[in-house]
Design brief:
This protein folds into 2 domains: about 120 residues, Immunoglobulin-like; about 120 residues, no CATH class. Helix content is about 30%, strand content about 25%. The protein has 6 helices and 13 strands. Strands 3, 4, 6, 9 and 10 form a 5-stranded antiparallel β-sheet that branches. The longest helix has 21 residues. The chain is elongated, with a radius of gyration of 25 Å.
Length: about 280
């Protein structure tokens, strides 16, 4: 979704209520398939859903501009099309981590007297001269995670968090969020106890260690304070695929961990039953 509405010197479709169209928002279908050596991107439904603006595309006065941006590899490229469908295959090394797809409609020649139907009343019947390269319509930004071995719906905790033994003998556990994976450091005494139970009652560890760490990570994501590292890209993809509300990070974290507290109760009770028997 667009995070904010900007002001342009002329009405831009998709920018708030600048221009009314037959749909509330331009929403093309974006699909990405990740192969071993390549990444295939397909975009369908490139339509403005506004008769006058779609006619500008057909006449060659405007074109769709598609920008691909991968911060991790510094790949940036732009493509244009006047078709309703677009496809492009990228070499695997070109894209890694979070990839952003920005789509807009731009003029390719000067358009004089531009006054699209459905303009907001603030424009009060004005018309505009649009220069080549200026925006006519904007589309919400899309993104995907370019990791062929990562499945957001089956992502284990190990894909986000690594637990290590620290240098201190005692004290609280500590977290580092600036590394590619979130690093949880346990004191030496805690590490010995952790090693003794991690394979017996893992859900207890989820509630006591992973849950609070994940809540903090989701809070960083919500506040746009997460660093541009692997765990943040993966967690963002998990949130998207699971359709979670990160305005409520505690509930979202429990959903990601599949009700860790309930599972911990079951595991502990099983262990206690074994000892009682």
């Amino acid at each position: 979704m667009l995070e904010s509405v900007l002001s342009y010197p002329h009405p831009v479709l998709g920018n708030g209520d600048d221009v009314a169209a037959s749909v509330d928002e331009i929403q093309p279908g974006v699909e990405c398939i990740i192969y071993d050596e390549s990444i295939a991107l397909t975009i369908n439904g490139l339509e403005a859903h506004h008769e006058q603006i779609d006619e500008l595309i057909k006449s060659g006065d405007a074109t769709w501009l598609i920008r691909i941006n991968c911060p991790r590899t510094y790949y940036r490229e732009s493509f244009t099309t006047r078709e309703q469908a677009f496809s492009q295959t990228f070499d695997g090394p070109d894209l890694e981590g979070k990839v952003y797809i920005e789509i807009s409609l731009v003029a390719v020649k000067r358009i004089e007297g531009y006054a699209p139907a459905g303009m907001h009343s603030d424009y009060d019947g004005a018309n505009f001269d649009i220069n080549s390269g200026e925006l006519i319509a904007i589309v919400p930004t899309y993104s995907f995670l370019a990791e062929k071995d990562f499945d957001a719906l089956k992502a284990p905790v190990a894909s986000l968090i690594r637990i290590e033994e620290g240098e201190e003998d005692i004290g609280p556990f500590k977290c580092t969020y600036e590394t590619q994976l979130i690093i949880v450091t346990l004191p030496k005494a805690g590490w010995d106890e952790y090693a003794a139970i991690r394979d017996r009652v893992p859900s207890v560890l989820h509630t006591s260690i992973v849950l609070p760490v994940l809540v903090e990570a989701l809070t960083l994501l919500r506040d746009d304070s997460a660093p541009g590292v692997t765990w943040a890209d993966r967690l963002d993809e998990i949130v998207t695929q699971m359709d979670l509300d990160i305005e409520k990070p505690l509930l979202a974290a429990q959903a990601i961990l599949s009700n860790p507290l309930g599972r911990a109760f079951v595991e502990v009770n099983k262990e206690l039953d074994k000892r009682a028997g």
